């Protein structure tokens, strides 16, 4: 069982920044991709960013150039630096990790990000 603990959400004005962090209880050697999704009220679950074990990153078009995903394999953490935030970024953000030994995706509990205009 892998547990993920998220932190860093909150309320910020448009144009501001937030940094989300997610720490996994599992040792990094068995973790493959890590990433973030978000879900706004009335909307579907939306992929925000992915980072592979080799550091390759993929971003949703809506966040390219504003968000940066990173990972620390030694600490089994994945971070999401969010700059130039917009009201439409308001959502609950969920981190995930794909664990190779179980071939299963584990999710964080979600953290609320609210961007005021």
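-> sequence recovered:
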């Amino acid at each position: 069982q892998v547990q993920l603990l998220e932190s860093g959400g909150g309320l910020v004005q448009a144009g501001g920044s937030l940094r989300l962090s997610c720490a996994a209880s599992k040792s990094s050697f068995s973790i493959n991709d890590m990433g973030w999704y978000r879900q706004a009220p009335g909307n579907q679950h939306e992929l925000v960013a992915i980072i592979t074990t080799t550091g390759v990153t993929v971003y949703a078009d809506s966040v390219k150039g504003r968000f940066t995903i990173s990972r620390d394999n030694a600490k089994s953490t994945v971070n999401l630096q969010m700059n130039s935030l917009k009201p439409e970024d308001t959502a609950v953000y969920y981190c995930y990790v794909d664990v190779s030994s179980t071939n299963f995706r584990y999710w964080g509990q979600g953290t609320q990000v609210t961007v005021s205009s």
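The mean pLDDT is 94.
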